[in-house]
Design brief:
Two copies of one chain form a homodimer.
Chain A: E1 3-10, H1 14-25, H2 27-34, E2 36-44, E3 49-50, H3 53-57, H4 59-67, E4 78-79, H5 82-89, E5 97-101, H6 109-117, E6 121-124, H7 134-141, E7 149-150, H8 161-170, E8 175-181, H9 184-194, H10 199-208, H11 217-220, H12 223-235, E9 245-247, H13 260-266, H14 271-283, E10 286-295, E11 298-307, E12 319-326, E13 334-339, H15 343-361
Parallel strand pairs in A: 1-2, 1-5, 5-6, 6-7, 9-11
Antiparallel strand pairs in A: 2-3, 3-4, 8-10, 8-12, 10-11, 12-13
Helix pairs in contact in A: 1-15, 9-10
Chain lengths: ~375, ~375
C-alpha cells in the first residue's frame, strides 16, 4: 500500500504542468520503488487556484484552459479570492504534503516558509525566495527543517549541482571555490560566438527559438546566473547576499529601458565590442563564456575568456557545468555537467527532490 | 542541543579510521548545520571489537595499535569472542544508529541486513554485500528501508555517481545506458599507456606507489570495476547479477595462480599485446581506457579504444567519470567526474551518506 503525499503546485506554466504530468507518468515506478503515491491536491496561479479533485485529474484540460489566456480564477471549479485560497491551503501546510514553487515571484515566500515551519516539504524551481536575505535562506535550510526544503532545479535545471555541493558540505570538506556556467541560453549564445556568428544574430535566434525569457534582457543581464551562483555559494555555507555578487551584464544601461522590440532592433550596437573580445580571446586560444565564480568572500558573474580546451571552453549547446574545488577535491575538481535548460529536465529535478523529501522526512 | 547518532564502524583499516577521524573533525560543522552529533560506539575488525568509550576516543592510539599488526581482540579494552561482540552490537542495531561497513568481506552481510531491518542506518564503502544476489540488494534498498542504506563510496570513491543516478531514477527518467571508468588505479595505468609507457612498467610503479591492492591482480582482473558497474546498474533499476557482467581482465589465466612476486616479474609478457592495441587505437586518434558500460540487459567491462578528444579519452591521473544516457539526458549525457581513489575522498563519501541518513531518517 503506497503512502500518499499531497502536492500543492504553485505556478501553472510549462514547468509546473510538466511536473504534474511527470508525477502522473511516474505513479507506477514511485509506488514500486519507494512505496509512494503523489496526489495533486491544488494548483495555484497568480490570480486563482483549483482544489477540485476531478478538475485536477485532467492536466491536459488545465493546460488548454491556461493556453487560452485564462487564469484559474476563471475556471468553472476555480477559487478566486485570496481568503478562499488561503482557507483551502491552510490544512495542506502540514507533514506529509509538499508545496512546489514553479513560479518566478517572491510574493508567496511567507506562505512557503509557514508551510515548512508547519512540517510540510517545499521544493523550489524558483530562485527568488532562495536569493532573499541570508536569514530567510537559513529559515528554509537550517537544522530544524533540513531535508524538508530542496531546490535542485533552481540551479542548472535538473543536473545535480545542488546535490553534489550539499554532499561536499555534509562531508565537512571545505570548499574554496566553485566555478561554472549556469545558463543554457547564454551557453547557446557563447558557443555560437565561437563559430564567428554575431551577438545580435544569436540573441535574435535564441529569442525566436523560445530559449530566452520573453524579455531577453532577463538572460543577458546576468541576474539569472547571479541568483544561481548565490544559491550554490549559500549551499557551500557562505553567508553571502545578492549585494556580494558582482554582475557584469551583456548590454549597457542605455538599452535597459527601451521596449523588447527596440532592444532586439538595437542589440547590433554591441556586436563590434563582443567581436573584438572574441578575437582577442581567440589569439590566446581561448573562447568567451559567461562564467560564474564564487568563493567565501563573494561571487563574480560575467563574460570571460577561458581556454578552448578546458571543460568550460569545450561546452556546446545548452549544457551547464560546475567545478568544485575543495580541500579534498584539490588536485582536480569535482565536475558535474548536464543540460541546463528545458521544462522536462527542470521538472525531473523537481520530482527527484519530491521523492527525496518524501522518502526522507515523512515516516 | 545536537541529536546524537551512534556509530558502529566495521573495518579498522585506512578508510575506516579516516571515517572516524573525519567525524571528529566535523563535529562543530555537523552540530551547527544539521543539529547532529556522531558518537562512535564501536569499532569491529575481523577478530575483535572495541566498545570502550575512552579507548574509542583516541583513534590515533588505535591506528598505532593496528599498525603494529595487532587485532582489536588483543587490545586491553578489546572484546574477542563472537558471542561477546554480538551481545554488545545487538542493542546498537536500532533506529538512531548507523553501521558503517569499511571492510572488504561479505561475511557480515547478515548482521548488516538485520541492523537495517531493525531500524538502523547502514553505509557501505564495501562492494561485496551490494553485489550479492539481487534479492539481497532489494532487502537493502527496497521501499521498506529506502533512505536508510547508502553506498556512495562503494563506487568511484566519494564522487556522487550513486547520488546522481539515484536522482535520475527518482525522477522516473528511463536510463538507457551508463558508461564510465571506475578505477583510479586503471586510470593511472591507461593514462600512462597514452604516453608510450609499457604496461609492466606502469603496473610496477602503481604497485610501488601503493595505488594497487596488495595483489595487483585484484585491480587488473577488472572484478573491482565489474562490481562497481553492477551496483550502478542496480541503482538504475536493472535486476542484474554478477553473472550478467562480462569482465575482460588484463592478464591471461596462466598468470592467475602464480605468486605476486612472480606475477610482477612476468607481467612484461603482456607488454607487446597491449602496445599493439595502443598503436592500433592511436591510428584512429583513440586511446585505451578500461571502460565499464551497462544497460538493462547486462554490463561489459574491459579495455577499449575511445576517442582521444572524448571526456573519457581526456582523463588523466586517477579521476573517474560517469556518463548517464536517459530519456531526458538524450542529446548529451549527464556527466560526473571526480577523483576515484584515496582514503580521504572515500571517507568523505561515507560521511556525507551518514549525514543524509541521519537528517532523513532519524526524527
Amino acid at each position: 500500500m503506497a503512502k500518499s503525499i499531497g502536492v500543492v503546485l504553485f505556478g501553472c506554466g510549462n514547468v509546473g504542468l510538466t511536473v504534474g504530468k511527470r508525477l502522473q507518468d511516474c505513479a507506477a515506478s514511485h509506488a514500486k520503488r519507494y512505496g509512494l503515491r503523489f496526489d495533486l491536491r491544488a494548483i495555484v496561479d497568480s490570480r486563482g487556484a483549483l482544489f477540485d479533485a476531478e478538475a485536477l485529474a485532467n492536466l491536459g484540460a488545465i493546460a488548454d484552459f491556461k493556453q487560452q489566456g485564462n487564469s484559474l480564477a476563471q475556471h468553472a471549479q476555480g477559487v478566486s479570492t485570496s481568503e478562499d485560497i488561503a482557507q483551502h491551503l491552510e490544512p495542506l501546510a502540514s507533514s506529509g504534503n509538499i508545496f512546489v514553487d514553479c513560479t518566478a515571484t517572491d510574493r508567496i515566500s511567507g506562505q512557503l516558509i509557514e508551510a515548512i515551519q508547519r512540517g510540510a516539504g517545499v521544493v523550489f524551481a524558483n530562485k527568488k525566495v532562495l536569493t532573499g536575505d541570508w536569514s530567510t535562506f537559513q529559515q528554509l535550510t537550517g537544522p530544524d527543517v533540513t531535508g524538508r526544503c530542496r531546490f535542485e532545479s533552481s540551479v542548472g535545471a535538473g543536473s545535480p549541482f545542488v546535490a553534489a555541493v550539499s554532499r561536499v558540505a555534509a562531508a565537512g570538506d571545505a570548499v574554496h571555490r566553485i566555478q561554472g556556467t549556469f545558463s543554457g541560453t547564454l551557453g547557446f549564445i557563447t558557443a555560437g560566438l565561437d563559430k564567428g556568428r554575431s551577438l545580435s544574430e544569436l540573441v535574435r535566434e535564441a529569442y525566436d527559438l523560445g530559449y530566452t525569457e520573453p524579455d531577453p534582457r532577463d538572460d543577458l543581464s546576468g541576474m539569472d546566473v547571479a541568483r544561481k551562483a548565490l544559491i550554490l555559494a549559500r549551499v557551500c555555507g557562505w553567508s553571502l547576499e545578492m549585494s556580494d555578487v558582482d554582475v557584469q551584464g551583456l548590454y549597457p544601461a542605455s538599452l535597459s529601458d527601451v521596449s523588447v522590440a527596440d532592444f532586439l532592433a538595437r542589440i547590433g550596437e554591441l556586436d563590434a565590442d563582443i567581436a573584438a573580445q572574441q578575437e582577442a580571446a581567440a589569439k590566446e586560444d581561448c573562447v568567451l563564456r559567461y562564467v560564474a565564480e564564487a568563493g567565501p568572500q563573494g561571487c563574480q558573474v560575467g563574460l570571460r575568456p577561458v581556454p578552448r580546451s578546458s571543460p568550460i571552453g569545450a561546452l556546446s549547446g545548452t549544457d551547464n557545468i560546475l567545478n568544485v574545488h575543495s580541500d579534498i577535491y584539490s588536485s582536480t575538481p569535482l565536475v558535474i555537467q548536464g543540460s541546463g535548460a528545458g521544462a522536462d529536465i527542470t521538472a525531473a529535478g523537481v520530482v527527484a527532490d519530491m521523492v527525496e523529501i518524501a522518502v526522507a522526512r515523512f515516516p
